[in-house]
TrEMBL record:
InterPro entries in alphabetical order: DctP_fam, TRAP_DctP, TRAP_DctP_sf
Range of residues in the leader sequence: 1-27
UniProt name for this protein: C4-dicarboxylate ABC transporter
Organism the protein comes from: Marinobacterium aestuarii
Keywords: Signal
Organism domain of life: Bacteria
Signal among keywords: yes
Amino acid sequence: MIKRFAGKAVCLTTLMSGLLLTSAAQADLKGWNGHPPDYPVSVAMDQFGKLVSERTDGRIGVKTYHSAQLGEQDDAIEQIQFGGIDFAVFNLVPLNNIVPQTQATTLPYAFKSVEHMHRVMDGPVGADIAAAMESANLVGLAWYDSGARSFYANKPLNSIQDLKGVKIRVQNSDVNVAMVEALGANATPIPYGEVYTAIQSGVVDGAENNWPSYESSGHYEAAKHYILDQHTIVPEVFVVNKGTWDKLSAEDKEIVRTAALESAQLQRTLWAEREAKSEELVRAAGNTIVELEDKSAFIDAMKPVYEQFASDPKVRSILDRIQAVE
Ligand code: BDP
């Protein structure tokens, strides 16, 4: 008797927790983020979650896991593609080898300025790049800012010549490898979270990134020479797994899309503030910052990269359209 009763009780508990789990899983959107909680991307993603919960009266709960708690970027992107993670924000470089159209936005000097990048991405070109991502199971909802990226190393970088033979960490992208090799440097793809140690232990001499990442990652402590060649202005995308997106009602899709777009507006304001703060902090730490009045040596060195990647008609046509935007 007791045995049978106990068995039933276990069954009931299992059933109940199963039901609870199912309803929690349906309600929760799980987000990946590689940056610390006070970073502009992180604050904006939290704001996205808040807006979605408020506007659905708590029906859709949202949680973003910061600081790469859910894994390094490339692994996270795989998870977002198959639905283990519902949404994320990251720059377009790791999509280069997955969605060729994104290469046009990460080619060196493709954009004239950050404002130009926003005009392009907020318009039809950005919409077409987002549409191309659907083949990779990703629905792009909004574009965040991430400024311009420049090189840094633990040895002086006063001009393009100083990059020769220097070991530079890159994100996992053929375009980035080609870009670094075109400068006569050696490219090593390494996940973001491992770069600090890689510089410290001499696996690489340096890397490349924007002011806030250079500062918040602590790379500025390990690689004190920063040369502002501003080779790329890479958009960051707010993506949702296609399966997660398709399951949302039309009304919830609208709520989620609007919240993502509003979070992007907030992120862009926070970004400008953080860029200035990070620069101040790095300069105060005594790092060597080299400004380049004339970037033509860098621009010229990138010709082979364009020959290699812009010859793909998918990339070429996006690039032509980027260049046609004023
Ligand atoms: C940061 C981007 C992030 C990249 C990282 C990197 O925000 O998406 O993962 O650079 O270099 O600026 O890997």
